[in-house]
Amino acid sequence: SQLYPEEMRVALESLKIIEKMTGEKLPRREAGTLALHFVSDRIETRQKPRIDITAITEDCTRIIERELNTTIDRTSFNYNRFVTHLDYLIRRLETKKQIESQNRELYEQIKKMYPDSFNCATRLTEFIRRKTEYEINDEEVLYLAVHINRMISRI
After folding, report:
1. Residue 22 burial (CB < 10 Å; 0-12/13-18/19+)?
2. Among 28-32, 111-115, 139-143, where is mean pLDDT lowest?
């Protein structure tokens, strides 16, 4: 949650309060989930979403199925992770806070190792750009490719 340090700080404090009030110590990883809820709530109260995330998600799912000639199990854990990632990607675009790091080497590796997933991620970002008018950076393409690869891998 480097993207949202203030929300993460509040979430960690919330875990302490929950422990004090209930005697139940929640795992630290729950702070990340709480932080994302705080971000989501802040975004929703500050602005009405003008982007239909549900429609974009369904369209992206159809694009993946068509491009990769597959059927995605919409009840699977990996699909749910993809949907969550897409939701937060759109929210990050709206708040102009895309993921940024120095993962150029990983980007190139994923591009080589999983060309179908990578090309599909590139097509999705072009589609999202057309729908939202937001540019999407390579880091976001990388993470989309990883999620797509997870969904289509029958592991």
Report:
1. exposed
2. 28-32
